[in-house]
Design goal:
Radius of gyration: 20 Å
Shape: globular
Order of helices and strands: EEEHEEHEHHHEHEHEEH
Oligomer: single chain
CATH superfamily: P-loop containing nucleotide triphosphate hydrolases
Length: 257
């Protein structure tokens, strides 16, 4: 295969005597979604926080486009075009979509005056490519639905040239239509060549949205599978038992009595 967009090799992270991540490896290619699964405390969020710069690893290496990356802070991660969309979304509820898009990175004139029309135009342009049905540009994001809020958070990441996205349970607490909206957004990001790590606990969503699934247990990487080659029960078994599924050729044709 081509050089991975991201490769994390033998990553270790400990808090005191507790090994949150123990020599875990994972990779991601352009235009791919990799689900990261496991029970609470399995290490999936900690591993992704190492990539985002929220945690400093104790061991291992990170490669971006085949070159070793030095990521110790979120600022470092952003230099490598890595953005994280947390479940809480980190949006300012009292501001509209454009103000949230440029929050902390506002466009100003040489005299420091906000260029509100320019920012509004840029927001409409990026949203026109990501979610053409979005219309509530002047509403505070507190008034938006869950899927619309995700659209704003994703637009902010993409506008500032993210190539690698870490998404933390992006469809949690969303209804069917809202989940479909986010799924369509993820598909559009794949088509644009972005790579996405999707942290989730819902196997069904991972089977629907992801190309591969990486399962962690007790800080270890159990393994990575292509979702089209396995069943939901296979992934559930990986999560519970910490073992890779048997190859399809080795499985009995019918359930044993």
């Amino acid at each position: 295969m081509n050089t991975p967009l991201v490769e994390m090799r033998d990553i270790s992270l400990a808090f005191g005597g507790i090994h949150a991540v123990d020599r875990a490896s994972i990779d991601l290619h352009p235009g791919e979604v990799v689900g990261v699964l496991g029970h609470n405390g399995a290490g999936k969020s900690c591993l992704m926080k190492v990539l985002s710069g929220a945690y400093r690893r104790d061991g291992g290496q990170i490669f971006i486009n085949g070159k070793e990356a030095h990521i110790n802070t979120p600022r470092d991660a952003r230099r490598y075009n890595i953005e994280t969309i947390y479940q809480t979304l980190a949006l300012a509820d009292n501001l509209d979509a454009a103000a949230n898009l440029f929050l902390g990175r506002e466009i100003r004139s040489p005299l420091g005056v906000l260029k509100e029309k320019r920012m509004a135009h840029e927001m409409q342009a990026i949203m026109g490519r990501l979610n053409p049905n979005f219309r509530k540009f002047s509403s505070p994001v507190a008034d938006l639905s869950g899927g619309q809020r995700q659209s704003v958070a994703i637009a902010r990441a993409v506008y500032f040239n993210a190539r690698i996205l870490i998404m933390d349970e992006p469809t949690a607490a969303l209804g069917v239509e809202e989940t479909r909206m986010v799924s369509d957004l993820i598909e559009e990001l794949k088509n644009r060549g972005l790579g996405i790590f999707l942290i989730d606990h819902d196997i069904h969503r991972v089977m629907q949205m992801c190309d591969r699934a990486s399962v962690m247990k007790n800080g270890h990487m159990v393994g990575t599978v292509r979702v089209k080659d396995v069943t939901e029960d296979d992934i559930l078994s990986m999560i519970i038992l910490g073992k890779m599924p048997e190859p399809a050729a080795d499985r009995p044709a019918f359930p044993t009595p």
